Write a sequence for this structure.
């Protein structure tokens, strides 16, 4: 695909993307977070080989899907209200931001109704901010220890997603990433090997190299690819 002439610096997007991709170790995937950016920007990234795209609003995601090639893997990464789940089911390859059991149950019920399997990550809350959504590490460990995930009919929990505290303090950020990874490592043996449970999604534009050092397998990068929103 070629992008129509717009004010978007498609060459810069491609350069940014190649630059980041070349630094990723094997086993670490990149989600290009394209929220609030127009489709022309996504097309530039697609043309440079990017296939995973992350969006944080249901309506925006649903609008973009038919405008992009159908081998794109869409990740939903925003806070999801239960009454907005339905349009996502069957349309996304991963919902990264499951932050409550009620949301998980809604996803499972609708997926089951629609006869599709939805892949999700459980969002964990370790940051200092109260405003961040997600399960506390102990809550999440408890959920897996009691094997409640086995009640799910049409949902695969594929790992966990987390965000570090929004701070310049690298020691705090590193300790948040360590907590997220430790939580994953505690849960992993509680999940039968027949289940796909191997994704640790952490790291954004400012902190993804540090997240990788602490064991991220999936980084979500927006600004460093597409510029500011
Ligand atoms: C917006 C967003 C990102 C990307 O943030 P950048 O700083 O632009 O890289 C990553 N993860 C989540 C959950 C987001 O909402």
């Amino acid at each position: 695909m070629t992008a129509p002439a717009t004010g978007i610096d498609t060459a810069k997007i491609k350069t940014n993307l190649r630059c980041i991709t070349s630094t990723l170790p094997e086993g670490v995937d990149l989600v290009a977070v394209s929220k609030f950016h127009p489709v022309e920007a996504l097309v530039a990234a697609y043309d440079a080989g990017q296939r995973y795209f992350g969006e944080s609003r249901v309506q925006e995601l649903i609008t973009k899907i038919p405008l992009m090639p159908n081998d794109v893997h869409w990740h939903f990464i925003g806070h999801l209200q239960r009454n907005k789940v339905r349009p996502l089911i069957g349309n996304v390859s991963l919902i990264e931001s499951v932050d409550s059991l009620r949301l998980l149950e809604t996803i499972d019920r609708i997926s089951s109704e629609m006869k599709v399997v939805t892949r999700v990550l459980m969002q964990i809350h370790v940051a200092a901010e109260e405003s961040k959504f997600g399960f506390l590490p102990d809550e999440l460990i408890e959920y897996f220890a009691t094997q409640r995930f086995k009640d799910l009919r049409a949902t695969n929990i594929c790992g966990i997603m987390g965000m570090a505290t929004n701070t310049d303090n690298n020691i705090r950020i590193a300790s948040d990433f360590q907590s997220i990874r430790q939580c994953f490592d505690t849960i992993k043996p509680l999940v039968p090997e027949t289940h796909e449970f191997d994704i640790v999604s952490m790291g954004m534009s400012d902190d993804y190299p540090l997240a990788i050092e602490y064991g991220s397998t999936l980084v979500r990068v927006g600004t460093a690819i597409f510029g500011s929103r």
User: Anything to note?
Assistant: The two ends are 24 Å apart (CA to CA). The beta strands are 29-33, 52-55, 73-76, 94-98, 118-125, 155-163, 199-201, 218-221. The chain has a mean pLDDT of 96. Residues 39 and 192 are 40 Å apart (CA to CA).
